[in-house]
Amino acid sequence: MEIPRVELQGVSMNYHTPEGETAAVANLNLTIEKGEFLSLIGPSGCGKSTILALIVGLLNPTAGKVLVDGIPVSGTHSKIGFMPQRDQLFPWRTILQNVLIGFEARGKLTEDHRVKGRELLVKYGLGEFLHHFPHQLSGGMRQKAALIRTLVMDPEILLLDEPFSALDYQTRLSIADEVWKIIVNENKTTLLVTHDISEGISMSDRVAVLSKRPAHVKTVLTMTLSGERAPMARRKAPEFSGYFNTIWKELDVH
Amino acid sequence: MKKSLSISVKDISTEHSKFLSRIQREKRFIRLWQWSLLFLIFALWEWAARVNLIDSFITSQPSRIWATLVNLYLNGDLWRHIGLTLGETLAGFLSGTLLGALIAMALWWLPFAAKVLDPYLVILNALPKIAMGPILIVWIGNGPFAIVAMALLVSIIVTVISVYTGFIQTDTDKIYLLRAFGATKWKVFTKVVLPSNMANLVSALKINVGLSWVGVIVGEFLVSSGGLGYLIVYGGQVFQLDLVMASVIILCFLAALMYQSVLWVEKAMYRWRSG
Fold first, then answer.
1. Which of B173, B183, B184 sits opposite A88 (nearest CB)?
2. Which of A103, B66, B113, B150 could link A109 by a cystine bridge, Cβ 3.0 to 4.6 Å?
3. Given pLDDT bands bounded at 50, 70 and 90, which one contains residue B93?
4. pTM for this one?
């Protein structure tokens, strides 16, 4: 059997504050296979961001193991590309400078990297805006620039933390489509965290539904929808509403 | 006016060019009023003194101030006093700001130290620094160094507190992003904390321009045998209001000049930030 890209084995995470102890994640098991697009859907505040931080390597689990390519995660590593909620582009940097921040953060920005950043921006339609500042771009374009900032580092795994939540609905639909195409084109393993059920169904190969806090995986559903694979088209697939209802029930919001 | 209109004007509509020239006109109008107001105040002052509406022995008058300035210039003292005060102020301003910013950085770097030192900073901030004057004189002697120390003392605590507060309020999501990219603490500082605190640093500079003048003049009141603060105290003691007023006017001029320099520094800093 092939080693999964990412594997969480019985992971628990507790936070301590003077007011007490909070269990954010409890005995969570999850595997993400190579090249797959998996969404994590859970009620808000259920510990999704904690799960991401564990995989990024910025948190150590209280119990259990986090493995990337079969190797335990300790500290940040270059296999992971993290894309935050909201674009977090630095307002004082141009789009190209923003895209290169990851290399600067690691202290090794070369001319090759510059060329690569420029190429990716051009390839995905931001060529005109290399030297513009973030505030001069629309929300959707900024989000795309944020994705390119992650992609340019050439990570094997993309972690997207509710990347579209700050966008208006229409932009959200079209940018989700575009981002999905870019990710497929770059052939990345992707973990998308979202609370938007439709977004999860339309973009993913599999959807994992999380419980309320402390988070554990309630169920994992494989999405088999007829028709075209792109998110926008998938929303029209006949199976869509069935999955929607199943996940809605699993979420158990009430 | 021509200069700002000629910025790549290919197809500026007449309406827009009218608008631009209107702003220009308004700007010049404001400038004109500013100078006129200054002239008016001095003219009124001079006139009131001449017709004995005010007692020029107490209020002095522009013509006598001018004569005092010329006199100071002729016997070579003017530049000595200006040079001394300006030098002390610059030294106090630069050392206070730099040291303050460095300490703020150290506190950001070492949260434990920041927690330990917090009450000390709060009390030092509340303490009127002028009360430290005699101590400084005993420790450092009654020369320019005590005055620089005074200026430093007045500005450093405020700098530490305001700059540090800005540092720790840096957007945590941006820091998180950089850390996810594998940034070291130093990279986090230089790539996010410092650039996002530019406005904060500039405002510390602006506040310190004022504070270091306060420190120096107070210092010169206490000790010193030269400088504008000395002239003011001396002039007051011998009831030479001409000398006091002349010194105050020079101070106004110098303070304005220094503030303008800070604005230049501000521009340079923003240019650095945007690469």
1. B173
2. A103
3. very high
4. 0.83
